[in-house]
Write a structure and sequence with these properties.
Elements lengths: L1 E7 L2 E10 L4 H14 L2 E12 L1 H17 L3 E4 L3 H10 L1 H4 L1 E2 L1
Parallel strand pairs: 2-3, 3-4, 4-5
Antiparallel strand pairs: 1-2
């Protein structure tokens, strides 16, 4: 998986590509956690994401917990119908801010 980081006006956008799974979730975690120290707002762009596993969901939950504890909003944007179905089925759509 490739993650592009875009920083604009203290907003960090992480653009994820292809798969968020056991092999790639650590890469997201390694970029997401430091982003809370660098930005006032974080967005995860799922426009090019086609798969999310339970390991990926764990990282999203970790990010949401950090967001709540630091009062730094984390939003998920450009979610495909397929990924949204996974988030709905797992209850994550109720826990995460998805635009």
């Amino acid at each position: 998986m490739k993650i592009n980081k875009i920083m604009e006006n203290k907003k960090s956008t992480l653009v994820l590509e292809v798969r968020l799974d056991t092999l790639t979730s650590q890469q997201l975690q390694d970029m997401l956690i430091p982003a809370f120290n660098e930005a006032n707002e974080i967005a995860l762009d799922f426009a090019n994401l086609v798969y999310v596993s339970s390991a990926g969901l764990r990282v999203l939950l970790m990010g949401e917990k950090i967001a709540k504890s630091t009062n730094i909003p984390m939003t998920i944007i450009n979610v495909s119908d397929e990924i949204m179905e996974v988030l709905d089925m797992t209850g994550f759509s109720d826990m995460l801010t998805i635009i």
